[in-house]
Q: What sequence folds into this?
């Protein structure tokens, strides 16, 4: 009965909007802008199948660049580095950010506000500052530049993503679940693993996915902390863009795009579950 | 008692990590900015104000001024283009909202360099667009569309637009549209209702978008590098040069401190105006 009433009390504006189904000016605007946004991406995909080496003229369809991609040792090496780096930093962020958000939701302490601010600093300030301070700080500590410094640098900007997602999710959780478990004699550890963790799992995962994608794409921090021996894929692409691009890069970007789309789709799924 | 110490164990990793790898480096940056560059390599631990005085030089002031101008232009353009997008998106039916969200997030998650490269293929001399125009007989000389100020501006707007769209959308989505209806019922014209209600209620989204666009645009050196062909010098490029080529780390640190001050000022202003701790649509 109540449901029926609710349905009927829809504001008139909503009903009016539904009756107009034809394409309006606002729709044209949305579609036009989306088309512009996707244009360069489509161009890169298209040219990954271009047989001509000078990428301006269309020389017919080919899959050669995809084949050559798998023979390009240094490109594969940097791809491997990028994937390992993204896996490690999103895992570090997943653990540190999740535990931090859970703990912060439970206790009050004097430096809490400061800590909360500092955690978010890496994604608030221009990336170049972060890159520069890491470069200076790591060389002060005498850390050899390479995978270690990369993981530390990337983790710093990945932690905030996980932290914010989990924090937002925790706000929406009914506290009585955990309390009921405690009343029934569950220990703190059990409450965490059996109640809290399953409830916040989607948020952890989507935070980690975002971290993974951001780490995989990062140029700025990597340029400063990678050092001379280790190269990540975006750094490689950046150098090529300044000197000269090989067609394999188009093929590689296309493959990476597929990975990105899959990640986004999974993450959207997780976000919807949250509702 | 046991519960409390457990909670501290949870926070400890993040606390230590943040102090060590966020606060530590930032404090070192501040210290470094007051130190002296060593003659050959590295820094000397001698206090000096030289680095800050150096920023007062005309060349560097110009760089700051150019960066700020570009950041303002970028922010204004993204707001102009992104606001209607976020606003219209919020008015879409639920199903298409999810689809559009997906379509905005994908380019956002895609490598920025790849997207820039697509534009280069299109716009460079003898690129796709010029060849097309030449084939049609509309032009017979290169338009030189890349490697100038406009190209960098366009690249910045393109790269940062999703931030603005998501911020505006996030606050427009939460808006109570019945208020607009009410204003209209009470005799307000559409534009009046928009200015007095919609604009005001989406202000947190606008401000958050402005910050999320303005701050990175001061430091996105690689866009200026790739699309500006080395001719456009921004604070970001200057810092990178000082670090990588000139190796004057203390000066780079001083530049970064000034940039950081700008950033903090902006975020502080946002918090003052909106009374909110978090930026709208940051995720």
A:
């Amino acid at each position: 009965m109540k449901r029926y009433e609710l349905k009927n009390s829809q504001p008139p504006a909503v009903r009016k909007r539904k009756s107009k189904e034809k394409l309006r000016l606002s729709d044209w605007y949305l579609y036009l802008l989306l088309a512009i946004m996707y244009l360069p991406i489509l161009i890169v995909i298209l040219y990954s199948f271009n047989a001509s080496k000078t990428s301006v003229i269309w020389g017919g369809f080919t899959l050669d660049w995809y084949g050559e991609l798998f023979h390009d040792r240094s490109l594969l090496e940097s791809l491997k580095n990028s994937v390992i780096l993204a896996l490690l930093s999103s895992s570090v962020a997943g653990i540190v950010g999740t535990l931090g958000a859970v703990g912060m939701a439970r206790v009050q302490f004097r430096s809490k506000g400061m800590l909360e601010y500092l955690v978010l600093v890496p994604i608030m300030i221009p990336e170049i500052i972060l890159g520069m301070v890491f470069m200076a700080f790591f060389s002060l500590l005498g850390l050899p530049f390479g995978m270690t410094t990369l993981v530390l640098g990337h983790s710093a900007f990945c932690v905030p993503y996980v932290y914010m997602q989990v924090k937002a999710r925790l706000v929406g959780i009914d506290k009585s679940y955990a309390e009921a478990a405690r009343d029934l004699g569950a220990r703190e550890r059990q409450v965490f693993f059996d109640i809290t963790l399953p409830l916040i799992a989607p948020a952890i995962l989507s935070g980690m996915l975002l971290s993974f994608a951001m780490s995989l794409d990062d140029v700025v921090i990597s340029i400063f902390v990678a050092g001379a021996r280790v190269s990540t894929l975006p750094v490689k692409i950046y150098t090529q863009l300044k000197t000269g691009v090989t067609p394999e890069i188009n093929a590689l970007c296309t493959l990476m795009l597929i990975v990105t789309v899959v990640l986004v789709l999974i993450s959207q799924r997780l976000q919807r579950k949250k509702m | 008692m046991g519960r409390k110490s457990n909670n501290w164990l949870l926070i400890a990793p993040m606390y230590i990590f943040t102090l060590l790898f966020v606060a530590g480096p930032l404090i070192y940056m501040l210290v470094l900015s007051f130190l002296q560059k060593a003659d050959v390599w590295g820094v000397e631990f001698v206090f000096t104000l030289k680095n800050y005085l150096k920023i007062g030089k005309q060349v560097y002031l110009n760089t700051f001024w150019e960066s700020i101008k570009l950041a303002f232009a970028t922010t204004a353009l993204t707001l102009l283009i992104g606001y209607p997008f976020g606003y219209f998106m919020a008015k879409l039916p639920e199903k298409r909202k999810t689809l559009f969200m997906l379509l905005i997030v994908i380019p956002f998650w895609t490598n920025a360099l790849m997207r820039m490269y697509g534009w280069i293929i299109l716009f460079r001399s003898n690129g796709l667009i010029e060849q097309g125009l030449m084939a049609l007989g509309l032009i017979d000389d290169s338009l030189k569309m890349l490697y100038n100020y406009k190209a960098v501006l366009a690249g910045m707007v393109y790269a940062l637009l999703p931030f603005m769209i998501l911020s505006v959308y996030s606050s427009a989505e939460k808006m109570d549209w019945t208020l607009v209806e009410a204003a209209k019922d009470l005799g307000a014209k559409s534009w009046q209702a928009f200015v007095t209600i919609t604009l005001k209620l989406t202000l947190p989204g606008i401000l958050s978008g402005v910050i999320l666009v303005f701050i990175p645009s001061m430091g996105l050196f690689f866009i200026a590098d790739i699309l500006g062909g080395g001719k456009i010098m921004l604070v970001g490029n200057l810092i990178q040069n000082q670090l990588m080529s000139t190796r004057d780390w203390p000066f780079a640190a001083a530049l970064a401190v000034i940039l950081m001050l700008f950033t903090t000022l902006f975020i502080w202003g946002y918090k003052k105006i909106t009374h909110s701790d978090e930026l709208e649509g940051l995720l």
